[in-house]
Input
Amino acid sequence: MDILSPGDAAGRLLIVDDDAINRAILENIFAPFYVIDEAEDGDEGLAKILARPERFCAVLLDVVMPRMSGLEVLEHLKENALTERLPVFLITAEASDANMRRAYDLGVMDVISKPVVPYIVLKRVQSVIELFQARKRLRRTVASQQTKLLAQAEKIIRLNQGMIEALSTAIEFRSEESGDHVRRIHDITWNLLTYTALGDGLDSETIEQIALASIMHDVGKIAIPDAILNKPGKLTAEEYEVMKTHTIQGALLLERIPQLRETGLYAYAADIARHHHERWDGRGYPDGLRGDAISVWAQAVSLADVYDALINKRVYKAAFPREKALEMIKNGECGVFGPHLLECFFAVEEDLFALYRP
Output
């Protein structure tokens, strides 16, 4: 057993007893191993404990004392959840069954009868102190390890997010777009699901995952030839059919990333990549989904993509004025959107447009 020296800050022991002789006997037993502090009654002892409970490694407590009994001190300690962190021993001549039962109910570690046998009381108290201190060291070690693991997990999450953003941005550069497009899609999607009824039923963690998944909506464009992807004019019917395959190619590409499939992000990313060109009236692609068969997140990204495309310059068109872009969305000139989605979009559009201001 490790014996604590009097200079050890964790080895301060409090003796609470109204009898000076009893305090002197206990001090004589424990002083070689612990710094001793004393209190002449329960009231003084409780005040010292409550002031700095972490200061003491144990409390030796008499039962019968003026002003406040040892059992009353225990009641206060239990109310403050201190008996779980600080070992308390009753050292008393009043070791009746009723007192012992009550003391143990209140969280006392041991009840030691007077007159004490020095060697026995020393060993009993030291064993419990060592156990409590070992638990404290273990808790500190576990807390430290948890902190390190959380930091590592956050680092991995940031790394994964960085890789996802880099992949998505690379696709945008291929189509002569800046990486700002995918960041705006992320922000618009997040705002729609966070600040409108569109996100009802989705918790904040799910919304974060959907917003991150949204930046991979066009990842399938990596399979589209540059001549079609960057064509400045209108696509021919054949070219348009090739362009439409980016939705299927995107879902297939994401499916081939095993690390992504192991995360909760995958289901949202694959669904968005495949279905962000579906239309409320069923005339979209690739699966011709209609109405609520299109997931809320795919609908949100679909509208975010159209909104961003209209008010920004693209290789095949100039930017439209904001008012014109909103009119085109409302009139279904760039795809048909559900009434609930449009209601939510127009409720926060002013805030969304603020994302484009420098």
